[in-house]
């Protein structure tokens, strides 16, 4: 089911490039000085972010204003960097695709935003490292069942 969701999200946002979980992990492990700097943005709700997140991820809600978005990017990228790849993720990829699309439409110098294909659900399902709990907030019962291994759930309905 996750593959179908990933496909549907990529069709909904044809102007947003995706990066695979394997590609991101490789970029994070690379020590090459020639590669662009990386900024990872978690676009989920604060309560989802507080359960677990990708290492070094910064939280930014995908519906914040463009002014807040520009300031966030300026505050979290290096001025003298040749370029920065911004990797956006959420639970499955919809909210992060919205955010990546918004960032790219700002046409900021030396910045390119990508959606993490399958987002944190795919990352967790592949047993890639997380900060916080080793499980993931499933967003809701429906989306959790559709995209996240039940063994990776870290949530109760009260949250």
Describe this structure in words.
With 159 residues, the protein is α/β, with parallel strands linked by helices. 40% of the residues lie in helices and 16% in strands. The protein has helices spanning 2-12, 21-29, 46-51, 66-76, 94-105, 119-125, 141-147; strands at residues 18-19, 37-42, 52-53, 58-59, 84-89, 111-116, 131-132. The strands form 2 sheets. A 5-stranded parallel beta sheet has the order 1-6-5-2-4. Strands 3-7 form a two-stranded antiparallel ribbon. The longest helix has 12 residues, at 94-105. The model has no long low-confidence stretch (mean pLDDT 89).
Structural shape:
globular
Beta-strand share of residues = 15-25%
Q: What integer value in Å does the Rg equal?
A: 15 Å
Describe the sheet with the most strands: 5 strands, parallel
What proportion of the residues is helical, as a percent range?
Answer: 25-40%
- In whole angstroms, the N-to-C terminal distance is 25 Å
Secondary-structure-derived class: alpha/beta
Average pLDDT number: 89
Describe the strand arrangement of the main beta sheet, using strand numbers.
1-6-5-2-4
Multimeric organization: single chain
**DSSP summary, beta strand count:** 7
Order of helices and strands: HEHEHEEHEHEHEH
- Helix tally? 7
Q: Stretches where pLDDT falls below 50 for ≥5 residues?
A: none
Please sum up the structure shown.
This protein is an alpha/beta fold.
